[in-house]
Amino acid sequence: MLNQVKHLLPAEIYQMLGKLPAEVLESLEEIRIREGRPLEIGFAGGYGFTGESGWMGTNPREAYKPSAEACRKLLERITNHSLYAMEEELRRGYITVAGGHRIGLAGRTVLEDGLVRGLRDVSGFNIRIARDLKGVADQLMPKLLDPIKGNLLSALIIAPPMQGKTTMIRDIARSVSYGRWGRSAGREWPARKVGIVDERSEIAACVRGVPTFDVGPRTDVIDACPKAEGMMMMLRSLSPELLIADEIGRMEDGAAIREAAHAGVAVMATAHAANFEDAARRPVLYSLLEDSAFDLLIELRRTAAGTAHRVIPVKGGRGQPGARSPTLPADWSSAAAQIPAAAVKIGRGASP
Q1: Which residues of 82-106 are buried (b: 16+ CB within 10 A; e: fewer)?
Q2: Looking at the structure, do residues 101 and 248 belong to the same domain, yes or no?
Q3: Longest CA span, the chain
Q4: What pLDDT does 13 receive?
Q5: Using CA atoms, how far apart are residues 257 and 262, in angstroms rounded to an integer?
Q6: Backbone dihedral region of 276: left (phi > 0), alpha (psi from -120 to 50 degrees) or beta?
Q7: What span, in angstroms and rounded, lies between the C-alpha atoms of 287 and 268?
Q8: Using one digit for the tens of pLDDT, what is the confidence trace for 152-186?
Q9: Are the beta carbons of 265 and 243 closer than 8 angstroms?
Q10: Taking 70 as the threshold, does the pLDDT of residue 253 lie above it?
Q11: What pLDDT does 187 receive?
Q12: Is 31 exposed, middle or buried (0-12, 13-18, 19+ CB in 10 A)?
């Protein structure tokens, strides 16, 4: 995984990280570089500080501390030596590079009329290494289908950060675009047209508008575009049968998703939330669930065995089931790949 970002890292940092144990490098997820402070890595759900000769541990005092010069080199490489050209990315606080790797930035903000217009004196970097894992959606795919009506169901996929939401929706897009439906009543269905609005360039990892990840042969991508505007562009001109967006949460996102629902287009979207109760506390997500803009709510969790999911049909949606026990699983670490759940009723006066 380290080789995927080799071209970005200053030589001294790359050589140091290259001495880490092979099992750590194979599961590397994050590299956190902070000027004058301990070098930190995230891997396989854990973290550690690192230093000379491949040392790794939890004591920050013994860790290597990147210099101002190393951070300057890193910033030059990720901006291709042009901070001005990356003005919009700096305003948002992250830069996505080829391969879908997102680099979060920390430093001093530049304000204009009380709004953030950019970053200066960048001194912190979080390099999140993108993974394209094929097949992670295989066990979920049959639950995303309405075999009676021959439709795809709309689903909101929620999880805390670093639980595999983007990886999951990329594999869903790929599966639908190839017509890979898994062991389900829809397995003979033809492939469907997919539209991806990739605001952060993480789902398809486009370079000059061309996806570098395999997102399927019947997939169109609008890259680096605000989600709401991109979804409306898709609906107006590209006639998707499935619309995909990552990390929704703004009012305009909700309006675009409702428009897609009214047009009969299935939507798969992700959002940050720990569980259903957490999602219901966010006004935009609550409103979308209340309006049955989504048929399913899907909670993701990373476990020792991989990614587990819990499917919650939303009453009023096309995927409404009969009532079942609403008990949440006590231990996600021993969860199977799918966990049954009750339908949830959203509505004014209803307890979420």
Answers
A1: ebeebeebbebbbbbbebbbbbebb
A2: no
A3: 62
A4: 93
A5: 9
A6: alpha
A7: 16
A8: 999 999 999 888 899 999 999 999 999 998 776 65
A9: yes
A10: yes
A11: 66
A12: buried
**Quick check: 244 and 268 in contact, CB under 8 A?**
yes
CATH number at 260 reads: 3.40.50.300
- Residue 91 domain-assigned? yes
CB proximity list for 96: less than 8 A, separation 6 or greater: 89, 102, 103, 200, 201, 202, 205
Whether residue 96 is found in the same domain as residue 183: no
Closest by Cα among 5, 122, 131 to 75: 122
pLDDT in tens, 201-214: 899 988 889 998 99
Per residue in 106-147, pLDDT (tens digit) is: 999 888 888 888 788 899 999 999 888 899 999 999 999 988
Comparing CA positions, the residue from 136, 76, 78, 179 lying closest to residue 300 is: 136
Distances 179 to 24, 174, 184, 279 between C-alpha atoms, Å: 35, 8, 12, 31
Question: Does the pLDDT value for residue 336 go beyond 80?
Answer: no
Q: In this structure, what token pair is assigned to residue 4? A: 């995927």
Same domain (yes/no): 25, 52: yes
pLDDT surpassing 50 at residue 328: no
**How many angstroms from the chain centroid is the CA of residue 4?**
19
d(CA 100, CA 131): 8
